[in-house]
Amino acid sequence: MPLNRRNLLIAGSTVGLATLVYGCSDSSAEAEVTANVVNDAEPEASGDVALYDGSAIEPINGDAINNPPLADRPMGGVDATVTVVEYVSPTCPHCANFHMTALPQIEEEYIATGKIRFIQRPFRRNVLDLAVLMVAEAAGDQYNEVLGAYMESQTVWAASENPRQAIFEIAEQFGFTQERFEEVLTDQEMLAAIEATREQALNEFGLQGTPTFYINGDRFEGTPDYAGLSAEIENRL
Questions:
Q1: Distance CA 179, CA 76 (A)
Q2: End-to-end CA distance of the chain
Q3: What is the DSSP string of 18-38?
């Protein structure tokens, strides 16, 4: 399906959640687009640890993994020495399972304490992914909270007879009006940035499915659960 202004305003069709053993595969047509969005982050303090506040950040360093076309919005410690990047697709059931089971433990132990920098980076597999990711990005500093809300309710909106309306109803909880929602779904600059982020993951990092994790630039090959990820994080702290 070509991605343009008209079919971004998705109608009432459901999406097939095609999966592989290790995760969800890319299942949509590619688009040749480029963009670059970079902003400054304003950290917030938590005790003696400076935590990110949801703002978009400048690249951490010159490594390719830290230079996505769409600026990252990390959680965790501003001065953390360990960076975990998760490529996430909102319609991927494996991603939802990770967010419902492992992420709360990782957040309590490593993110809220500032031990790691955790980045939920968008990877669009289909048009529903794209709609959710555009809403999350448009939410600004609430990016991670909005994405989390969609992950928690994935079985509801992704299987709805009218997913567009279901996606809007969640966006509405974060202050989106119908007019703003329509504007977001036709934002060509944001579309280009999300597509370019996807293309970078495919062409430069060899990403084949979601969720895929990179820890300090190295692809994580273990089991994507709390035990597996925490063991690798501890090895790098």
A1: 33
A2: 44
A3: ---SSSEEP-S--------B-
